[in-house]
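Our collaborator T.R. sent over the components below with a one-line note: 'Predict the complex.' Nothing else. No constraints on interfaces, no templates requested, no preferences about which chain binds where. So this is a plain run: every listed entity goes in together, and whatever single assembly comes back becomes the starting point for the next discussion.
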Amino acid sequence: MNFERSAALAKALMDFPLPADVHPAATYEA
Amino acid sequence: MTARERVDEAFRRIREANPQYNCFTDLTQERAYREAEEIDRRRARGEKLGPLAGVPYAVKNLYDVTGVVTLAGSKINRDNPPATRDAFVVRKLHAAGAVLVGACNMEEYAYGFTTENFHYGATRNPRDPSRTAGGSSGGSAAAVAADMVPISLGSDTNGSIRVPAGLCGIFGLKPTYGRLSRQGVFPFVPSLDHAGPFARNVADLAACYDAMQGHDAEDPASRERPAEPVSDVLGVAIGGIRIALAAGDHYDELLSPEAQQALLQAAQCLDVKTKVEVPEFARARAAALLITFAEASNLQMGNLKTRVADYDPATRERFLAGALIPAEWLLFAQRFRAWYRDAWRKLFETVDVVVAAATAFPAQPLGRDTIRLNDRELPLRPAYGFFSAPFSFLGVPVVTVPIRPRGPLPLGVQLIAPAWREDLAFRVAAYLEREGATSV
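Returned assembly:
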């Protein structure tokens, strides 16, 4: 059940057309 | 009152109320009286005392306290030796004269929103003991709401300060990510964890926050910025602050009538007529949760392999599921975080403080599994964090304010400001308090 929830969240998130030049490098900066 | 008398009063109140609400897992009586008597001696000698001299406070039991085992709500951590040093912010509060009286109940490893702890029991909401106090910092919030201590510390990863503050009807602060050191705070999701305070009024919240500021090289996230205290700006007029209500992207349709009412009262008091479209609210929450699942499980991997039976059953399922998150999901979520932060930086060019619900609905009865919101039956526990997770994901500061309830149960609103601008959120919170829109 918990993993199914994760998969549903991932599906909803990864539909987003994120530009290719967005990198995770600055992730932890507010 | 002397510091000793204040500590006496705090322990009297704890003895009276804690059996009903189950806020504390440890009391630090010997330390508290030692600290209080030292303050009274210094006061008698005419020495200058710190801004929190003699003020009793409590911490969520994931903060290191010298001589106390840092439980982090777990059975597993009971086997650890007691901490040999106080957490950075506990040392800061000690230097300001605050007196530690104990450590508070929480969700196991801070993983949840209801403080229904399998090992230590549920914390009950002082406004209605049949209901949750919220979580994961439920013990800290309820201890303040029940008047056992005037201030306490919690931690907030996806809403664990803002949710219980709202549900218990008190003030809470999630500061900017990197503002307050997490050294000596048992980690849950290091890229999202924040330390922060609870209080029954804005001045106490500000005083506690101010006392804890300062760079700490032992927390890799701690930023080298000078302290930016807010206590002195609470009375500054808010006329120049551009305030807007959050709207859009499924946000409105999830609000209960009670949460809509709380927002309306805040908006009327602040004379806010502007709304801002919150970008990608649902995806921000999804990304925050995927990062949470993966990072939290990674930190627990050793215990998951050797002591899986010792977890709270609800928490164990979450950790095990998180261990299966593919790297692709995690990296996408982290990239989305960078995009989302930039989108909000643009939004903050046109507005200074955004007002949003702290939770979509008031505290529900303990043990309940689902909630019906606008004809949709949803799992209850994660639903408490609908509106808080996107802002810890952003890392921006948020003050949660308890709005004077029309019904029997309190509800909070979030005052969301740009990174490093806690002062703006505090000024708006102080205005709401002065105008009588809040209730504790």
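Summary for T.R.: Chain A has a mean pLDDT of 83.
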